[in-house]
Amino acid sequence: MTAALIAALSTACAIWLWTGPSTPAIRLHTLLTATHRRLPWHHLLRTSLTRPSSTRRADAWRRACIELCQSLSAELAAGRTPGEALTRAITAVDFPDPEALRPALAAARDGGDVSAALTAAAPAQGGEGLRRLAACWDVSVTAGAGMSALVERVAGTLRAAQVHRQEVAAQLAGPRTTARMLAALPALGLLMAGALNMHPLSFLFGTFPGLLCLLSGTALDACGLWWTHRMATKAQS
Q1: 41-77 and 82-92 helices, crossing angle to 10°
Q2: Transmembrane ranges (predicted)?
Q3: Angle, nearest 10°, between helix axes 102-110 and 114-121?
Q4: CA distances from 63 to 28, 52, 160 (A)
């Protein structure tokens, strides 16, 4: 009964490692970084769990910035003033955090410093479009350049960058899946050994050489996942 339970748990773990998200690599990377900084354990857990959501939030900001530039370009092409065009464009776009754009909206309506408001509203991750739009606003105000042409060029650059990120993410999906599959092979090996009545768990947990093999194998497996995640992250950035 115990052997069957252990085999079932091993199978579940193998399936999770194979098909689940790449949280082991993310948590290990967070653990190593935070250990170097001597952060508390509860902060490590919270950071590891919110890392994927922060990535999705950055993607949402990038898409919203592209929509903002496209909408602003269309409003300027319709003959509206830059302030009125920006006001209508901000209102029409669904931002992840609409409250962050309220100062920029007020500056556009009242003739304030729109560039500074856009720069302040831009998040650290995903706010590249707002910062470029702020630079366009500065150039248009100081040099008198055509705002519509600048915004259209920024929109094209943002769209190209978004397509490039999607292509890189699609190309990295294969290596990440392969890394998770290879990480699951030791668990599958234990399952096969248990099915052959070789008692691998007794060796791993009941003897000193087995314990050394278990610790070293687990460490190497985790390091492999972390290294693959690190290479994929650098390639994607």
Answers
A1: 130
A2: 203-227
A3: 170
A4: 29, 17, 12
Residue 2's closest CA among 149, 147, 205, 220? 205
The rounded distance, in Å, linking the Cα atoms of 90 and 205 is 61
Q: Is 37 exposed, middle or buried (0-12, 13-18, 19+ CB in 10 A)?
A: exposed
Residue recorded with tokens 């294969």: 174
Local confidence band at 143 (pLDDT 50, 70, 90 cut-offs): low
CA-wise closest residue to 127 among 86, 164, 135: 135
- Residue 153 or residue 47, greater confidence: 153
Longest distance between any two alpha carbons in the chain, whole Å:
81
Q: How many CA atoms lie within 13 A of 11 on its CB side?
A: 9
Q: 95 φ, ψ to 5°?
A: -85, 150
From residue 132, how far is each of 116, 158, 204 by CA, in Å?
Answer: 12, 9, 57
Q: How far apart are CA 10 and CA 17, in angstroms?
A: 11
Encode pLDDT of 167-191 as tens digits.
Answer: 888 888 888 888 888 888 888 888 8
